[in-house]
Design a protein that fits this description.
Number of helices: 2
Order of helices and strands: EHEEEH
Strand content: 15-25%
Largest sheet: 4 strands, mixed
CATH superfamily: Glutaredoxin
Strand order of the largest sheet: 2-1-3-4
Bound molecules: FE2/S2 (inorganic) cluster
Number of domains: 1
CATH architecture: 3-Layer(aba) Sandwich
Protein name: 2Fe-2S ferredoxin
Distance between the termini: 27 Å
Organism: Acidihalobacter aeolianus
Helix content: 25-40%
InterPro entries: Thioredoxin-like_sf
Length: 102
């Protein structure tokens, strides 16, 4: 059994030179928000949900991106509403958010 039921990785990579990167699209703030929300909902921790930073995951043009394991489901997002939907639907109810999936 996995140590975490769901492990969420937010790319927070910052690039120089004007290349597309998640760090320029608010990823750190959304990562912080997701961490705070999972804690507030009581689903953060061993056996439940973990939210982590990641470096570049190679899908920069589609970003900002996050990926949820163990499913390996990739999402993009724009704002807190999108993060709330991923938490509510995917992390709490196990349903993929097709509208945000990449
Ligand atoms: S900078 Fe986020 S996937 Fe490359």
């Amino acid at each position: 059994m996995s140590y975490y039921e769901k492990h969420v990785f937010f790319c927070t990579n910052q690039r120089d030179g004007g290349k597309a990167c998640c760090g320029d699209r608010g990823s750190s703030a959304m990562r912080d928000y997701a961490k705070a929300r999972t804690k507030a909902l009581g689903i953060a921790g061993a056996g439940r949900v973990r939210v982590n930073n990641a470096g570049c995951m190679g899908r920069c043009e589609e970003g900002p991106v996050l990926v949820v394991y163990p499913e390996g489901t990739w999402y993009t997002y724009e704002d807190r509403d999108d993060i709330d939907e991923i938490i509510e639907e995917h992390l709490l109810n196990g349903r993929v958010v097709e509208a945000l999936k990449i």
